Structures are given as structure tokens and as C-alpha cells.
Amino acid sequence: MTSYKRVDGVALVTGAGSGIGRAVAIRLSVAGISTLYITDINNKGLDATNSTIESLGLQSSPTVNVIPGNIASPEFVTELFGQVPHLDYAVNCAGVLGQDKPTAEVDLEEFDRLNSINYRGLWMCVKEELKLMVKNELRPYNAFAIPGEEASTRGQKGSIVNIASQLAIVGKTQASIYTASKAAVMSLTRSDAIDYSKPPHHIRINSICPGVIATPMTTNEAGDVSDRLKAAINIAPMERMGLPSEIADTAVWLCSGESSFVTGAGIVVDGGYIIN
User: Given 89, 119, 178, 273, which residue is catalytic?
Assistant: First the structure.
């Protein structure tokens, strides 16, 4: 009996230099990816992610391609995808937080900075990811005790996971442009799923809506939580920050055939924040 890989093939992770993106790259490597492309504006962070993957001592470690750059730049996005001839999975993690200001106090420069990454940059990447995936052959779901016809029905040509936010669903004071950018990611996800999940494309597109996650964006070097986030943590019934690995595990599930009937979804992983 052959070993079962949850994912097998080629994956791309944006924002892989730290936090959620790094955790996703690591989890995909453990799950069976053979080739991995990682990108981030943080070159040193990418090297650290690559070193972490190498240090795992996996029986079948992926070939990791480190491509630093800023997805807000159309020129870089063209350069990035010029180096990716084939793609089975993509997890779009790159994103930035906004300033604590209500709409009337936000200037155009800040609006453009945030949206150039959170929405426009993600959209440019998704566009290129779809162009690659539509050329793929349908791959049956490779799992134990799945009959051939069922494996084919559950097959896919690709899977895309976009990182949105719990704030794509609910509002937050002094965060209008950030919440709007993440709502845009969810809306893009739903509409792309309508266009690309059906035959002949068979590409599933989903989003994850994390709560407050312990990353360099939300904590300082000592691991202390910024004051602006303490209230949000206390709103969630679990009363703790989420871990990057918890988002990464969800991303691997959405990439894999285990989630073969899930598309256009916004999977909320927030410790219960939005129910409160």
C-alpha cells in the first residue's frame, strides 16, 4: 500500500516570510508537496522559512523556490509567475493591517497602500494562478478505500485559498478600509468559485477568515499583545489568540481532496469571535 499524501504536486504561498504564510508553507511541506514557491517582501523571513522546512528532516522534502518581492507591484507579479510553469495549489497570505482611524481621517495614500496588497495584489496573484490551473489535467482524489469513480468525481485541477479575516464578516471601529479590503477578498472568492469550480475547470476557490492570530503583526518581540487587540481577544469565547498553525491546518484541508465539495466558502477560524 502506498503512503497517502494529503497534497501532492506544486504549491505557491504568498506572504510566506512570517506568521500565517510561514506556517502554511511548513504545513504544506509536511503534507506532501513536491515543489513549493514562497514569496514575501521580507527576504530574510523567506530564508528563515526555507531553513525551517529543511530542518524538519522530512522523508520527502519539497524543492523550495524562494522568490522575494512585493505583490503590490504588477511587474513583480509578472516576474513571479514567469518562474512558475505549473501550479496545483495556491495560498494567498500576504496582507497588512491598517491604521486605527475612521474613514474621514484616512488619507488616500493609506487607502492605496493597504488595498494595493490586501485586495489588488491578491487579485493579481489569483488571476495568474487561475491561468495556470485551467491548463491542468483533472487529478482524482488520491485516498485509501475510495472507488475509482468516486475518486474521479472528487477530483480537481487546482485549489486556491485566500486569507481574508473575521472582519470581512463583522465590522470594527476605526478599521473601515481594512475590513472593506478583506470583505473584497471574500466577495472575489465567492464569484471566482462560481466561474471556475464547475466543469471544465474544476478549480476550488475558498477563503479563510482568521481571528486575532499571534503573528509579528499582532505581537511585539516579547510576544506581548498590542493594546488595540486585547478587547478583540476577550470578545471571542475561547479568550485567546489563535496560532498560525491553526490557520495553516485549515489551509491544507482546503487544498486537499478532503474538502472536495467545499468551494466559495469563508471558513471562520476565530475562536468564536463573530458569534459573540
Answer: 178
